[in-house]
């Protein structure tokens, strides 16, 4: 029989755990903190049918399968508290996912839910159909794919790969290699300290400050805008059919051994290419 009573379970977990969560619709909120206990709170219709189990360092939270056209009646709001650096796997249909604190490796998949990750200390893999994705800080490799969602990363420390069908992509700071691809969205990078590859069908590509490395931009009709710090040598290979090349940076000759330099390759059909001082 259906119930509206919330369910709460708690487990002793003195070490970081492996958390697995499945929820069709509603929300999943995970808080990683300095604790030696894992607590699970579930609210919504059929909350008592959610399977919550512990097996050693693994905790599983799985919502019942809902079929037919009545999924909205079966929304479940899940709140889970885990030790910091716990490893997280979450699968949802339309449920939003919000993870706060520092977690370890993370694998998240959602059909249309929004994904928000605070700090990821190990490899992160995120896949959504149409939901937006936001990561505050990624300390290891990141792989992101979305059908039409926007992707925002505030800080990425290692290799980062982002692909979206029609969403915009914004990466504020990236220290490792970055590869970004979108069908029609705009791509923007705040600060890049490594190689960057940007590909878009009709969107614009922007790097506000390219400190060093190889920059490759490929697009059809969008503009390309790259900011270069003063005194940084730049080698360019730019091709545009009907667009214009504009540069307001000063040439400084060949780089000294070991000094920062930028190699820029840009290809566009009708977009303009603009180089500016950062």
Q: What this model shows, in words?
A:
With 278 residues, the chain is mostly beta strands. Helices cover 0% and strands 57% of the residues. It contains no helices and 27 strands. It has strands spanning 7-12, 18-23, 26-33, 37-44, 51-55, 58-62, 76-83, 87-92, 96-103, 106-110, 115-120, 124-128, 133-138, 142-146, 151-156, 160-164, 169-174, 178-182, 187-192, 196-200, 205-210, 213-218, 224-228, 234-240, 245-247, 262-268, 273-277. The strands form 2 sheets. The protein has a 14-stranded mixed β-sheet, with no helix packed on it. A 13-stranded mixed β-sheet has the order 5-6-2-8-10-12-14-16-18-20-22-26-24, with no helix packed on it. Strand 5 and strand 6 (58-62) form a beta hairpin. The mean pLDDT is 93.
List keywords for this structure.
mainly beta, single chain, 0% helix, 278 residues, 13-stranded mixed beta sheet, 14-stranded mixed beta sheet, 27 strands
